[in-house]
Specification:
Layout: H1 5-27, H2 37-52, E1 61-64, H3 66-76, E2 79-80, E3 83-84, H4 85-120, E4 122-126, E5 140-144, E6 151-153, E7 158-162, H5 168-183, H6 186-199, H7 205-225, H8 231-246, H9 252-259, E8 264-266, H10 269-282, H11 290-302, E9 306-309, H12 324-330, E10 332-335, E11 341-345, E12 348-352, E13 365-367
Parallel strand pairs: 1-9, 5-7, 10-13
Antiparallel strand pairs: 2-3, 4-5, 6-7, 6-8, 10-11, 11-12
Helix pairs in contact: 1-2, 1-7, 2-7, 2-11, 4-6, 5-7, 5-8, 6-7, 7-10, 8-10
Protein name: Methicillin resistance mecR1 protein
Transmembrane segments: 6-26, 33-53, 59-81, 88-106, 187-209, 291-308
Keywords: Membrane, Transmembrane, Transmembrane helix
């Protein structure tokens, strides 16, 4: 396995295609009859893994694509302030990654500060004070005037409730929903998405993915909470969802909470229609289509199957030269005892002046005895 400009490029291309597929599956409500939410979570994890492994595998097939890769290679080789443009891009990428990570740490600190404020001004209960629950899942419930809608404080496994009056049916639906977020360990999935936006801060499709995953997490919770319900009880649950969204108002603290939304699970008006549609159709479709499952399991292999490389056919001055692919496959380096290097390929040798040149990365090195 090795990483290169071509492997990063094909990774971004494949990730974009999978993110668009993910988006279509969510946005087109007719497709809700074809899948369950676990399939979408799995697809999100495949995209996450693909982006964090932008490498070329031993089974990857190299395809010469001069029309696209030659101009890209030429662009990255342009000199900018004494450096290759590709090197400048990598520096900017790393600087942006550090800045985004620092911003995320700042948001994490804000979240802990808000938690302290809420805790001081809350009345503390447990789920068992409102409904029957397995003792091992009897998590704290904080009732406070500082929030307007129920939510989960992810890291602390605490359910936050507004100081409002609820019917017994409503409180059971609300607590069941928020408890399921905790049981699903959704906070970790959200943090994986946050990490993705830190590393690929400049790649806009990852933000689309992050927003769509939030919808899927809510849909999955609804699916699990209502799994054993009758049709009548499920409609009661849907009614509670609608009523809670109608009660949403915005106060000062909630505007602060939005800055730390990565660490909270709150209701969102924008996802309600998808959740309701999915629930109403969930009784019609119990399992994901087997063909879709097969396709999904093949995605990690399919998306790593090919890689595009530049190709210069009969270009002036290329006689007797080798491509980077040929150098990796047929060449090797000899590391001499005096610290110098010699590159060997097809019976020919050349002394290396700059061993740090990227062209010599991932080439086998033999130590001189």
């Amino acid at each position: 396995m090795h990483i290169s400009t071509s492997s990063i490029f094909i990774t971004l291309l494949m990730a974009l295609g999978m993110i668009l597929l993910f988006y279509v599956l969510i946005q087109r409500k007719k497709t809700h009859l074809l899948f369950r939410t676990d399939l979408l979570i799995l697809l999100a994890m495949i995209i996450w893994g693909r982006l964090f492994l932008p490498v070329e595998f031993p089974f990857t097939i190299t395809i010469a694509f001069s029309a696209l890769m030659n101009p890209l290679q030429a662009l990255l080789n342009i000199a900018v302030f004494g450096h290759r443009f590709g090197e400048v891009i990598m520096i900017l990428w790393c600087v942006g990654m550090i800045a985004t990570a620092l911003h995320s740490l700042y948001m994490l600190k804000r979240m802990f500060d808000l938690q302290k404020i809420i805790q001081k001004k809350s009345e503390v209960f447990h789920i068992s004070d409102f409904m029957k629950v397995n003792p091992k899942n009897d998590y704290p419930v904080w009732k406070t005037d500082l929030i307007e809608v129920p939510m989960v404080l992810g890291w602390q496994k605490v359910i936050l409730l507004p100081n409002a009056s609820y019917s017994q049916k409503e409180i059971e639906h609300i607590l069941s929903h928020e408890l399921q977020h905790i049981l699903n360990h959704d906070i970790w999935i959200k943090q994986l998405m946050n990490l993705l936006t830190i590393v690929y801060w400049w790649f806009l499709p990852v933000y689309w993915l992050k927003n769509q995953v939030q919808i899927v997490l809510e849909m999955r919770v609804d699916e699990k909470v209502t799994r054993s319900m009758t049709q009548e009880k499920m409609l009661d649950y849907v009614s509670t969802l609608v009523e809670m969204n109608e009660k949403i108002t915005k106060n000062v603290l909630q505007k602060k909470l939005r800055f730390s939304s990565s660490f909270f699970f709150a209701e969102n008006r924008n996802v309600l229609s998808y959740r309701v549609q999915y629930l109403l159709e969930s009784k019609q479709k119990k399992k994901t289509n087997k063909g879709i499952l097969l396709f999904l399991f093949m995605l990690p292999v399919v998306t790593n199957l090919v890689i595009f490389e530049p190709y210069h056919e009969n270009a002036p001055g290329t006689e007797g030269t080798w491509s980077e692919q040929e150098m990796r496959e047929r060449g090797y380096l000899i590391h001499h005892q005096d610290g110098t290097y010699t590159f060997c390929i097809d019976g020919q040798q050349a002394t290396i002046q700059n061993i740090k040149d990227p062209v010599f990365e991932n080439i086998k090195v033999i130590e001189e005895e």
